[in-house]
Design brief:
This protein is mainly alpha-helical and 141 residues long. The chain has one domain. Helix content is 82%, strand content 0%. It is built from 6 helices and no strands. α1 packs parallel to α4. The longest helix is centred in the N-terminal third of the chain and has 31 residues. The protein is elongated.
């Protein structure tokens, strides 16, 4: 019974941490793109904004999952490791976004959420986010 309670508590702790990191990922997309993200996705049906958010959440989830799977048996150390790797992944995804913004014409954030259709650059940003997530997940393991 103690194992079930311990494992249940660990699941809740890791779940809460994962949700907090995904919320941070949401805020990152909110800050790097013009307009209100929730309105663009749920009211305007903006596919570009939805793609950016979906990939950021998937990437963050992959990093958090890898950090959890490879963490120590010590819960507090595992939570710290997961937090650090999750934050590093989000920071690196932001850096990749701004590097792409630097080397491409116009303002990347505005380009990606302009209109309901997905701009081709959205797929490039999506690939960059997934690649960064894979790199961080690989570094964790």
């Amino acid at each position: 019974m103690n194992d079930i309670l311990h494992d249940g508590g660990a699941t809740l702790a890791y779940g809460a941490l994962g949700l907090a990191l995904m919320a941070l990922g949401y805020l990152v997309v909110e800050v790097t793109t013009p307009g209100r993200l929730g309105h663009q996705i749920w009211t305007e049906g903006n596919r570009g904004a939805a793609l950016l958010l979906a990939v950021k959440l998937l990437g963050t989830g992959a990093i958090v999952t890898t950090a959890i799977v490879t963490s120590d048996d010590d819960l507090s150390r595992g939570l710290v490791d997961t937090t650090v790797y999750g934050l590093l992944g989000i920071v690196l995804m932001v850096v990749a976004f701004y590097l792409l913004d630097l080397i491409t014409p116009g303002r990347l954030g505005a380009t990606l959420v302009n209109g309901a259709a997905v701009h081709p650059a959205g797929w490039v940003v999506a690939a960059a986010d997934l690649a960064v997530a894979a790199i961080v997940a690989g570094a964790v393991s």
